[in-house]
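Data availability (excerpt). All sequences and predicted token strings are deposited with the supplementary files. A representative entry, Kinesin light chain, is shown inline so that the format can be inspected without opening the archive.
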Amino acid sequence: MPGASSTHPQRPKDEASSKGLASILYKAAWYLWPMGRGHEAQKMAEDAKKLRVKIFGRAQEESQYAIEMLGLAHNLQGHWEAAEKLFVEVMETSKQKLGPDHPDTLTSMANLASTYRNQGRWEAAGKLEVEVMETSKQKLGPDHPSTLTSMNNLAYTLVAQGRQSVALELMRECVRIRRDVLGARHPHYLSSLETLRAWELEHTDTVTTAQRNPRSRARFKEKIRRITARLKM
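Structure token line:
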């Protein structure tokens, strides 16, 4: 990022300058992260975190944002354990200071769930995602973009758990609401619609195979029964 690296070596002499530099580094990390430049974003976020922790203290909002950004940079690079540790800290701090249903808390929970998904820890991811989705529905509303994102994420986790029928119903709901709220040309709607069509095609093939084979049909029915029973728990 132009200008960011050149400010990095110069250590400020007063608090106001330190805050300014920390802000520049933090914004630079946010700029680099969506571009996939994880290593550079990590370095910027680490320096921003150090400065902000020194100025504000670790538990303050400014420091927590920098810690979260550092976790995102680690997550981008596949440093799952490092990202998980940072996201847990942000989540716990946010719950204590802001409350369990604050939007920042829900974001931190969603970030942690993504790290669990990347590690293949589907049960842990699903548990968090259900909590995020239900709380978002109550706090933000069922058609809020953040609620819809949580529905989309949970559907992916359900598929990974082998719970295709439940995932399909959830994704159908997500697609329907996204079309109504965002419009038929919005990229989030189009992405979820494409996913839904692919899942429906795969699910149809699975059901057809099960219907043609008596043993497969029995296993398929038992799988649906177990999924339904878990949902009622």
